[in-house]
Structures are given as C-alpha cells and as structure tokens.
Amino acid sequence: MLKQLTGVLLCMLLWNNTSLASDSASNSDLPLYSTVYDAKRDAFSDARAAIKLAGESNRNVLIEIGGDWCTWCHKIDAFLTANPDVYQALHNNFVLLKVNVSDENDNAKFMASFPKVLGYPHMYVATTEGKVILSKDTAEFLDQSGVEYSRQAWLSFIDTFKAANNQANLRQFELNKLNQRHTTTND
Question: How confident is the model at residue 173 (pLDDT cuts 50, 70, 90)?
C-alpha cells in the first residue's frame, strides 16, 4: 500500500512540474521586441506586429519605454524573473513592446503620438485598435520602501488593464484627459 501511494505521489509531482513548466512562457517564446531595447529596431513596425499579435491572442499591448541605459528598466526585468507568477500573468494578458529611447535613437516620431513621458521606464497600455487607455509612471509599482517593485501592485495593474476591461478603462482614460485639460485651462 505504501509503495502504491508513493508511486501515485511521485506521478502527481512529475505531472505538476511538467504542467507548470509548460504553462510558463520563456523569453525564447516571445518576439524580440518583447525582450530587448534595440536602437536599431523600427518602433512603428514593432508596434504593428505587437497589435496584430494582441488581436490574435485577445490581449492588450503594454508599451514599455526605456533603454539599456535605464537602471529601473533592468530592475523591472529582474523583478519579473524573480516573480514567475507575475511574469506569466503579464504575458498572458499583454503583448509587451519595448521601445528604445536613447541618444542613439530617441524614437521621437513614434513618441509624438503618446502623452508626455516624465521619467523612465514609462508604460502605456494600448488596445488592439491602437487606442491608448493608460499612461503610467512605473514608480507607481514600487512597494512602500520605494526600492523594490510590489507584486500586489503589478498583479492589480494586470487584472485592471487586461483586455476584458478595455471599454471601462478607455472611458476612464478619456475622462482623465478631459479633467487634465480643464485643470490646465483654469490655471
């Protein structure tokens, strides 16, 4: 009986490890534009490809603006590597598009269509129609120490801005833009 129970438990353990491994995406499964900042890449072409993939997979596009020079961009990558559940949730709900902004290529034409960036990395969420529904300073993902990213903040963000919530998020984004214009006009 003990031998049978041990065999069943061993099979369950092996099955769970195999299914977990197959559930988690690796960087090799992702398009190059999702894994690196590259000054030589065409941001417009990458954006079209990301929007197409997002449409095919019912996800939004998470546009991460930064570069290899950006310390906090590397901290995001390290955080996602150290938190595979957040990494998986992110890639299950978003197509990540990394856009390089550097002295070599500031991607000014691409960036001209987005709300102003105040610091790096900066993120935008776009729908499969290319509509921006969020402009986000990634400092909002930090925990209370201000030194580390927060799992809860990331998971909450992912849940709030997944494709299923686009209609409500787009309305909120438009309201926020109107409020900003109104506040700026009255100052």
Answer: confident
Residue ranges with strand state E in 41-163 = 60-66, 94-100, 122-126, 132-137
The phi and psi torsions of 123 (rounded to 5 degrees) equal: -125, 145
**Distance of alpha carbon 28 from alpha carbon 42, whole angstroms:** 20
Query: Peptide bond before 121: cis, by omega within 30 degrees of 0?
Result: yes
**Would you give the distance in Å from CA 143 to the centre of its chain?**
18
In whole angstroms, what is the distance from residue 110 CA to residue 115 CA? Answer: 11
Amino acid at 152: Q
Q: Tell me the per-residue pLDDT of 55-88, one tens digit each, with 9 for 90 and over.
A: 999 999 999 999 999 999 999 999 999 999 999 9
For 32-53, letters b (16+ CB in 10 Å) and e give ebbeebbeebebeebbebbbeb
The neighbour count for residue 107, using CB atoms within 10 Å, is: 18
Q: 116-129: per-residue pLDDT in tens?
A: 998 999 999 999 99
